């Protein structure tokens, strides 16, 4: 086990507590198995998923300054398990830390609005980190490999990073935004084989889905078909919004592109937790729209 033990202020986000409840479930199961302590920020607000700034940058910054301040009060890093939440909150944190040095009047405005609502001020004293990076950089791949009890040998996994995780922030301390390897390295640590394909660093199409549904589904379908053609047994994503477009809407995607698909889509913590011997039922793998049975059958668990 890593020492000292890891502890985070946990920002679960909206989708993991609703449409993708299995992500919340599997994150809890994985972190408990690894001995990682999560202090859930139950008073946190939705990050806005990038929509707040369409009306007001000040709104996005103030809402998420409050979210970060909740973690600062605990003197803990803020942990997300959603690429979109990471991109939005991480970028706000970058912008406000820059404002501390270059635009102190703007930060005073943000903190003034927080004070009016009886909220703690943003101090810029913590970090915002996705679960992927916490596993790779904080816990460590060697330590995860040592915890594996059900090696995922023979399982070919295609990463789908999501655009917010890679390019939502100005700088990316833990990976290359255009040629990332953190998910593939994690796959190798749990015994799976990484599959490379063109769409793994591109947008899933979710942001278009409310006003350009056909184009959104065409994007998703293209990525899924490329992963299938590359030999993937499943796609693994660190973003619940990508999961919604690639899994929940996959039957509709297949109809739009006129081609059958049927590729299982896993949340990142589900894959890692399987390698630790946590049961599929405990990880909510029965909640997916596209059946995960082929993945479990290949591993000899179905």
From TrEMBL:
Enumerate the Pfam families for this protein.
CCG
* Entry GO MF terms: oxidoreductase activity
Domain of life the protein comes from: Bacteria
Instruction: Please state every residue range assigned to the domain named Cysteine-rich.
Output: 8-89, 158-247
The reply to whether Nucleus figures as a keyword in the UniProt entry is no
What does the UniProt keyword field contain? Oxidoreductase
Record keywords: Oxidoreductase included? yes
Q: What is this protein called?
A: Heterodisulfide reductase
What is the source species?
Neosynechococcus sphagnicola sy1
């Amino acid at each position: 086990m890593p020492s000292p033990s890891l502890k985070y202020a946990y920002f679960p986000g909206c989708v993991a507590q609703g449409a993708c409840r299995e992500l919340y479930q599997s994150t809890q199961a994985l972190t408990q198995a690894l001995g990682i302590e999560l202090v859930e920020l139950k008073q946190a607000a939705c990050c806005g998923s990038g929509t707040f700034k369409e009306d007001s940058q000040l709104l996005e910054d103030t809402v998420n300054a409050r979210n970060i301040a909740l973690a600062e009060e605990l003197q803990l890093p803020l942990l997300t398990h959603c690429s979109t939440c990471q991109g939005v909150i991480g970028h706000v944190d970058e912008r406000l830390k820059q404002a501390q040095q270059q635009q102190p009047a703007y930060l005073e405005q943000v903190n003034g609005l927080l004070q009016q609502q009886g909220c703690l001020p943003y101090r810029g004293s913590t970090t915002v980190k996705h679960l992927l990076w916490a596993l790779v950089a904080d816990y460590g791949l060697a330590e995860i490999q040592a915890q594996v009890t059900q090696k995922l040998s023979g399982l070919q996994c295609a990463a789908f990073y999501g655009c917010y995780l890679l390019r939502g922030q100005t700088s990316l301390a833990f990976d290359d935004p255009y040629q990332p390897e953190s998910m593939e390295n994690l796959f190798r640590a749990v015994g799976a084989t990484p599959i490379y394909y063109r769409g793994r660093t591109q947008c899933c199409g979710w942001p278009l889905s409310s006003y350009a549904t056909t184009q959104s589904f065409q994007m998703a379908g293209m990525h899924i078909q490329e992963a299938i053609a590359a030999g993937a047994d499943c796609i693994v994503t660190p973003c619940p919004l990508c999961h919604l477009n690639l899994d929940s809407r996959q039957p509709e995607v297949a109809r739009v592109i006129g081609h059958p698909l049927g590729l299982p889509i896993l949340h990142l913590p589900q894959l890692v937790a399987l390698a630790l011997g946590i049961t599929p039922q405990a990880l909510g793998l029965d909640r997916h729209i596209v059946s995960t049975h082929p993945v479990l059958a290949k591993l000899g668990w179905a």
